[in-house]
Amino acid sequence: MIELNNLSVRLGQFAAVRSANLTIRPGDRIGVVGESGCGKSMLALSIMGMVPDGLQVDGALRINGHDMSHAPESDWNRHRARTMAMIFQEPMAALNPLRRIGDTVAEPLIVHERLGKQAARARALALLDEVGIPDPELRLRQYPHELSGGQRQRVLIALALACNPSLLIADEPTTALDANVALRITDLLVRLSRTRNMALLFISHDLAAVARATSDIVVMYGGDIVERGATHQVLHHPVHPYTRGLLAARPQIARGSGKRRRLPTIPGTVPPLADLPAGCRFSGRCPQELPHCASICPQPVATGSGGIVACHQMGAGA
Amino acid sequence: MTRSPLPANLVIGAILVALVIGVALLSTIWTPYDHAALDIAHKFQGASPAHWLGTDQLGRDVVSQLMVAAGNSMVVAVTAVLIGGTIGTALGLLASARGGWVEDLVMRLSDLGFAFPALLFAIMLAAAFGPSLPNVVIAIAFINIPVFARVARASANQIWTREYVFAARAAGLGQFAISRDHVLPNIAAPVIVQATIEFALAILIEAALSYLGLGAQPPAPSWGRMLSEAQTLMYIAPHLAIYPGLAIVTAVLGFGLLGDGLRDISDPRLSRERPA
Amino acid sequence: MTHLLSVEAVTRQYRLPRQALFQSPPVQVAVRDASFHLDRGETLGIVGESGSGKSTLARMVMAFERPDQGRILFQGQDINTLSGADLRLARQRFQMVFQDPFGSLDPRRRVGWSIAEPLRATDRATAAQIATRVDEALDHVGLRSRDGAKYPHEFSGGQRQRIAIARAIITRPALLVADEAVSALDVSVQAQILNLLMDLQQELGLGILFISHDLAVVASICDRILVMQSGTILETGLASEVLSNPRHDYTRTLLTASGM
Fold first, then answer.
1. How many domains does chain B divide into?
2. Which of A274, B55, C68, C81 has the maximal Cβ count within 10 Å?
3. Alpha carbons B159 and B156: distance in angstroms, whole number
4. Nearest CB to C156 within list B169, B186, B276
5. What CATH number matches the domain at A2-248, 3.40.50.300, 3.50.50.60, 3.40.640.10, 3.40.525.10?
6. Per residue in C184-211, pLDDT tens?
7. Pseudo-torsion of CA C110, C116, C122, C124, nearest 10°?
């Protein structure tokens, strides 16, 4: 339904996203994980057609078969909110503090679906109820500052659902929330995805949340998709050296008493965009690096357990 | 990433200000004629190759007068704003650092200062101590103090909540050291923007006071006094009113636009830090 | 025996704006009757969510705020009875690392200058001595001597935290308070910084007070744990015990939420 084919997002000769291939079908729940600068947010924005000015998008992006590569803004506007919708990290910043919740949620209904005020209000009420906000009639009349962080995030989800999109992109939806609340928001997103047969693209650096919410996972590093597969498979049996390093670096609760052990780390840091190697982005930090890794880009190959990995160790020489 | 072009108001303002300041500086070493030289035989002349903008009722060259007046205007504006700005900023920093009753006292005093319109205060000073350019400077400096105190205090209050200030406190620095090392450099931008705007106002006020006869006394030329002298001569020599008026507009507009432009480029750059 | 840090029955409350003209204003209790202690070479973790009071506690330990009741003893001395000058001198012995790697360094100052700040504040060191100590500190945190001449924006988040740590250890303190020091960092960078803190603790014999909302992080680095909610300490004990046998439902919820 939504297909990315060799999609790249470039600034001049530097690629924030490089040759991404991804297919999202109705009802899919896909997580995108990676650290700062890996390109996951840029990937999401490219699906929404909201890549910042000055950046160039190459490759093919198809929405329901329709190639959006050179589509005019009006085409994009038809799809936004109706085919795909997006929610972001900071719930406070995304709500107009001067408007009541009810007015904010009703707006897309009035604008896109051309509902009258009464009908829009009724739908807004139903949406607030669907996202689990208690006492929705009261909330409709309130202003954003009267709601807690978790409730505001629910309102934003309701807003995103207003026109029944087939895909919901959630970019770090739980990062600004307390652990308790984050848990419930994550479960809400899963429930909504199931009941509406709506695809969910869950972008986060919180591996625990992603593990809970998704059935498939995409791992990104330096603009490349380095590994893809079933969530359980990738998290417990990672193949790509970066994925392995990332999972090993997670703080673990040491079972039993005894001296705390140092955490295994990935040496070095992510190089700035301009200094990324031309071949495999992870070269220079990889414990299993081969001489040609830095100059030749690894092509994605099947892992044998249903996933895909882009690593020379898994290629034709392995 | 991509550099956004400089805003138009900044560019235009900078050009106008450079023009005015350039003329003012030039006047200290050269003017076409001695600005006070009388030449009654050639009074009320229009523009000519000899006198580019003509002569006034006493035969004095208009261009020369405008130039020297520009110099006076700049000196008054810079001195007054510098004095008022320094005192005001220091008070604002003190109020922000100390908080409590000190802050309240400084703010109430500056409210009092705001209650005095510059003109009224200058007239009072002139009545008490006689009209003169130094008194104009004092008057303008005085009304600048509360303005800078307010701007400095508001900006400083924000800086005190920044984490690097907490870190400095954790390092054992006292309030004075923190104000000097961390707060002052970080409020420089809004203070400078305010100063530019106050320059514009100072020029206007000096012109107004001189127009009323309370500023530069003859033979020191001033745009304001040129205007008031030209008033009675409007039907004989209208150009005598137009040129000083234009000069005032140019200077005030220039500094105003410059201040606006500086504010435009400083706000987004400073309030959003770039993540590495 | 005198503990490095001893917090005794500390309470801190804030007065909220008055709701009605003739009623006394409501009071919000940020920290209620908190007690704990910490010794050198030990890491104590304080876990809690926003509003739990952990940050207020940190600020009181750092003497940025005074407790309304109770005492805070640092190396046996009540820090709130010290004069301004004595307190500033004492600060050489307890330091803090803040959460925001982008905000805790003055953007207008070179990094070396910021690192040396605690030394300049009270030490009578010469410029040459200061330069040497800055180099030492940079070396301790894994950065190079020439990094001192750069500005904060030239570094990544993880590197900025290293700089903040360098600043915190330059006076060779006995106590380090880390307030959400790794919360804004990526997982792999977080691991590096946690390792760094553990190494520094061994080398310098630091006592570390580690405050975080992330139970997994606290669990991996701390010997003992304190769980806080709404200003009260719910439970405390050895990390391994609290995590395998939580006594409170709240602690159990935190465990579930962090994926355990």
1. 1
2. B55
3. 5
4. B276
5. 3.40.50.300
6. 888 889 999 999 999 999 999 999 999 9
7. -110
